[in-house]
């Protein structure tokens, strides 16, 4: 068979199939028109208005000063070990240091540095990626943590945390050298 003959056969078969498909549409057109007229003749429905909006009462969050749920609570042994005559309270009159705006969980010890004939300084990375130099007596963490010791592998500090009875208690904490 030549190319022109196969092209003619194919084009004739396409025309025949198209006419057969269109002839099926013309017989159903009258039925479809009758159904559409019946739908238009029905009375129109009424859409009900949406329900009335009732605003929720406002809520004021007041737990921001409480202990974080992600930090272990003060152990009973720590409360019993403290001297009841010793008055522990954070010094709210002193200016806050830079690393006190971060929780201890967000701070990482990155190393130590020592100038000849000087004390050992710790290097602490904050949550923003900056590295801060600290020494004994500085404060860090959100719980008034005063640094009491710096070694090659960790920074030891004493935090002043609420004891749950309208008082304060000292709690030892450590920030260890980060692996990465």
Q: In a nutshell, what does this entry contain?
A:
This protein has helices at 3-41, 76-81, and strands spanning 108-114, 120-125, 131-134, 139-140, 145-150, 154-162, 168-176.
Fold and architecture overview:
This protein is of the alpha+beta class and 180 residues long. It has a domain at 76-176: SH3 type barrels (Roll). Helices cover 25% and strands 24% of the residues. The protein contains 2 helices and 7 strands. It has a 4-stranded antiparallel sheet with strand order 4-5-6-7, with no helix packed on it. The radius of gyration is 40 Å and the shape is elongated. The model has no long low-confidence stretch (mean pLDDT 82).
Summed over residues and divided by their number, the pLDDT gives a mean of 82
CATH topology grouping of the domain at 76-176: SH3 type barrels
- Kindly estimate the percentage of residues that lie in beta strands according to DSSP: 15-25%
Which structural class best describes the helix and strand composition? alpha+beta
Helical segment count:
2
Total strand count, please? 7
What is the approximate shape? elongated
Low-pLDDT windows of residues: none
Helix proportion: 25-40%
Gross CATH architecture of the domain at 76-176: Roll
Main beta sheet strand tally, sense and closure: 4 strands, antiparallel
- Please tell me how large the radius of gyration is: 40 Å
End-to-end Cα distance, whole Å, is 76 Å
CATH class of the domain at 76-176: Mainly Beta
Placed side by side, the strands forming the largest sheet appear as 4-5-6-7
Secondary-structure element sequence? HHEEEEEEE
């Amino acid at each position: 068979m030549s190319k022109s003959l196969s092209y003619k056969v194919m084009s004739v078969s396409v025309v025949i199939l198209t006419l057969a498909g269109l002839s099926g549409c013309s017989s159903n057109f009258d039925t479809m028109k009758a159904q559409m007229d019946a739908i238009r003749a029905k009375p129109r429905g009424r859409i009900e208005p949406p329900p009335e909006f009732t605003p929720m009462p406002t809520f004021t969050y007041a737990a921001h000063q409480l202990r974080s749920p992600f930090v272990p609570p003060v152990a009973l042994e720590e409360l019993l070990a403290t001297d009841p005559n010793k008055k522990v309270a954070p010094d709210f009159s002193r200016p806050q240091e830079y690393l006190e705006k971060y929780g201890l969980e967000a701070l990482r010890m990155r190393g130590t540095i020592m100038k000849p004939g000087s004390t050992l300084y710790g290097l602490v990375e904050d949550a923003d990626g900056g590295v801060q130099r600290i020494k004994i007596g500085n404060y860090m963490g959100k719980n008034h943590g005063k640094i009491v010791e710096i070694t090659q592998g960790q920074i030891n500090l004493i935090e002043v945390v609420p004891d749950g009875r309208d008082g304060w208690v000292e709690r030892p904490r450590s920030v260890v050298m980060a692996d990465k």
